[in-house]
Amino acid sequence: METCMSIVIGILFAIGTYLILSKTLLRIILGTSIIGHGVNLLLLTMGGLKKGGPPLLSLNTLTFTDPLPQALILTAIVINFATTALFLVLSYRAYKVLGTDDVEQLRGYNDE
Amino acid sequence: MSWFYLFIALPFLYAITVPFLYHKFNPRIHTGWFILIVPLVIFCGLSSYIPAISAGETFCLTFPWIPAYDINAVAYIDGLSLIFALIIAGMGFLVICYSIYYMSKFKEALHNFYIYLLLFMGSMLGLVFSDNIFVLYVFWEMTSISSFLLIAYWYEREKSRSGAQKSLLITVFGGLSMLAGFILLSMITDTYSIREMISKAAIIQSHSLFIPAMILVLLGAFTKSAQFPFSIWLPDAMEAPTPISAYLHSATMVKAGIYLVARCTTIFGGSAAWFWLVTGIGMVTLLYGSINAVRQTDLKALLAYSTIGQLGLIMSLLGLGSAALYSKVGNEGAVYAIAIFAAIFHMLNHSTFKGCLFMAVGIIDHEIGTRDIRKLGGLMHFMPISFLLVLIGSFAMAGLPPFNGFLSKELFFTSLLNAAEMSFFNMNIWGIILVIMAWVASVFTFIYCMIILIKTFLGEKKDYKLKQKEHQAFLSMLMPPLILAILVIVMFFYPNVLVQHLLQPAWVAILPTLAATVPLQIVISPWHGFNTALLLTIGVILAGTLLYKTHEKWRSPYRFYPQTFTINNMYDWVLEKIETCSRAVTNWYMTGFLRDYLVYILGFTILLVGGAAVLFEGLAFEFSRNAAVNMYELLLLSSMVISALTVLLAKSRLTSVIAVGTLGYMMVLFFVLLRAPDLALTQLVVETITTVLFLLCLYHLPKLKRENSPLRFKIVNGVVSVGIGVVMTMVAFSAYSNHSFAPISSFYLNADKLAGARNIVNAILVDFRGFDTMLEILVLTIAGLGVYILIKLQLARGKENEGTK
Prior knowledge:
Strand content of chain B: under 5%
Largest interface: A-B, 86 and 99 residues
Number of helices of chain B: 36
Distance between the termini of chain A: 51 Å
Radius of gyration of chain A: 19 Å
Order of helices and strands of chain A: HHH
Structural class of chain B: mainly alpha
Oligomer: heterodimer
Number of helices of chain A: 3
Distance between the termini of chain B: 72 Å
Structural class of chain A: mainly alpha
Helix content of chain B: over 70%
Number of domains of chain A: 1
Number of strands of chain B: 4
C-alpha cells in the first residue's frame, strides 16, 4: 500500500510542478492544489497506513492509526484552502486590471 | 576600566548630542562651537601622558570586548601612538575652529558634517591606540567610511559622489587585504596582539607565509596613504570641504598607512623585500606626486599631489630606516635608524605646514570664489596675512630655512646618503639612483611650492570676474593657520624640545628591539655645517629657481602625455568592465520570468535533496511492513492519477477544474479508507467550496490558451517536473522506511485523561496545539480579508478597470 502510495505521490508532484511551470495563472493555481494533495498524502504515508482503527477513543479498539499526521493534515487542508482562495481572487483581479493571465506578460516595469 | 577609554569614546558619545544641539541652537550659535570642546579635552588629557611617555614608560590597558574569542580592546599607549593621537586631537581642534567660519551656518547641514567628523576622530584615535589587530581593522575601516561620508558631503555634486566612491573602493580593497595579512600573521604567531607579534618577529621572518603576509599588510598601508599606483583617490577626495581636506586628507587619515608601516617595521623590517617595497614605492610615489603637482591648475589638486609626494617621502624614509634591523648590520644600525626618526619628524612637520597651506587655500577659495591658478594673481595686496601663511607653508614644504621643513628635508638627504653607503641590499648600485630620484623630486617640490606662492599672490592683479567681494578673511578664520604657521617657525628654532618629549619616544616605540641594544639619541641643530646634504639643498634651490623661471617652456610634455595611459583612465576602464560583466552575468540568469526562477529553485531542490539522500545514504526501501492493498484501493489510486493527468491535458478550463475537484473527492474517499474521519469531513467541505470558487472565477477568467511555447521550454519543464516527482517518491519511501525514533504519538493517546477528549485529532488541534490552531485561524482571517479587499477594490474602481482593457 505504502509503495503504491509513494509512486502516486511522485506522480501528483510531477504533474503539479509541470502545471506550476506553465504560463497561465489558472494552471498554476490548479498545480498548487494538486501539490497540496500530494503533500497531504505524503504526510499520511510517512506515519504508516492502516495501523489500527480511527483515532477515536470511544471505539474501544486496541490500536489506533497515528493521530499526529492527521492533525497536521487537517491544518494543511484549511491553510491550503485559504491560499487557494486568495490566489484565485488575486489572479482574477490581476486579469481585470492588467488584461492578461499570462505570467510572462505580468512582468511589471522594464526599469525595475 | 581606565578613564583613558573616555578619550576614544568621547567623540562617539558626543556625536549623539550633535543633532539636538544643531536643532536647538542653529542658526543662532554655530554648531562647531559645541564640538570644539571634544578635541580640546582629548588633547589636554593626552598631554598629561607626555611626561611619563618621554621618561620611557608605556601603558597597556585591557578592556574585554569579545573574551570568548580572545578579542580585547587593548589600548596601548607608547610614543608612536601618542604623537599620532596628539596630531589627531590638535589638528582636530584647529580644523573645527576653522570650519566654524568656513562652513556657513545658514546653508550647510552642519549636524551631518560634525557627526561625520567626530566619527572620524574617534575611529582614528581608536586606530592608533588599539593593539588587537581586529580592533585596529574595525577602526581602520571606520575611518574609510567616515572619509567616504565626508568626501560625499556635498552629495548633490556628481564629482563628490564619484570621488567618494573611488576613495571607498580603493581604501576598502586595501583594508580587506590588510585583514587577510593580519589573519596570516595571527596564524603564524598564534596571537592577535601586535606587541606579541613584535616579540615573535623572528618566527614571522623565517615563516613561509612571510612574503604574502607582508604584501597584504602593505597593500592596506599603501592604499590608505595614497601610494603609487593607489594614489588616484586622493586628488578626487579634494571635492570634500577644505577643512576636511586639511584634516583627513593631509594631516591624519592618509597617515594611517604611515602609522601601520611604522608599527610593523619591527615585524617585517630587516628583510630585503620590505626594504625595497617600502622604499621603492615611497620613492616612486614621491617622484610621481611632485612631477604631477607642477601640472595642476587647481590649488587644491596641486596640494593633493604634493601630499601624495610628501607621503611617499615619509614612506621611503621608513623603508630606508628598516635597514637598521638587518641581521648583519652591526653597529651601523643607529645610523640607519635616523631615517625612521626623520620619517616621524617629517610627518609631524608635514601636518603643520600642509594644514596651514590647505587652510590658506580655503580662505582664498572662500573669499575670491575660485582656486584656479590661472584666474588668480596679485592677491598679496588684498590678503597680506594669507600671503604670509602661504609663504611660510610653501617655504617649509620646499625645505627652506628658517622653517621646520628644512630640518626634516636635511635629515631625509642625510639618511639617503647614509643608505647609499650600505654594503647590502644591492645599495652599492641602487643607492646613487635613489639619491638622484630624491633630488629630482625635491626640485619639482621646490617648483610647485613657488607656483603656489608666486602665481597666486605676486604679479599683476588679473582681470577676473569675482562673485564675492575681495577682502581680508575674518581674523578667526586666520587664527588656526596662523597657529600652525607659528609652530612651523618655532619648531625650526627649538626642535630639541620636541625631540626629547615626543619624537624620541616615538622613535623608540617603532624600534623597540633595536633601542634595547643601541641607544637611539639625536640632537638636531638648524646649522649643521657644510656637508653633502646642505649642498644638495643648495642645488635644489638653484635648479628649482632656474626651472621655475623657464617652466612655461618645458611644460609641453605634460600636454603630450596621452590621457589613455593615466592610472585614472585604467581605473575607470576596470570599473566599467566589471560593471558590464556583472550586468551581463546578472541579466543572463535574472530573466524577470517567474517560471525561470521556479526552475532554478526546483532544480536546486532536486540536486540538494536528491544529492544529499544519495551522498549520505539516506535512501531506504523497506517493503516488508507494507499494509495490504486491495483491488478497490488500487482502482482509487489509478483514478487519482487519471484525474490528475486530465488536469494536465484538458483543453477546456471546465474540464480541468472538475478534474481537480474529482481528485479532491478521491482524497475524501482515501481519508475514509485510511481511518481518518475528521480529514474526510474537512476535505469534503473544503473541496466543495474550492470547486465552487473555481467555477465562479471561471466566469471572469479568460479561456485557456494552448501553451504554444517552444519545445525547449516544455522539455525543461518536463525534466524538472519528473525530477521533482522522482525525488518526492524517494522522500516518501525513505521517510516511511527509516524509523530512527519511536513516534511521539503515544503521548496523545492519553487524550481522554489529559484533555477530557475522545477524539484524539480534535484534542491535538484545540488542546495540545491550541496556539497553532489559533494562528491558523489568523491566517484564514488574513486570507479572508485579502479576498474581501481585492473584490471590494475592484468594485470601487470597477468601471475604470473594465474600461482600460
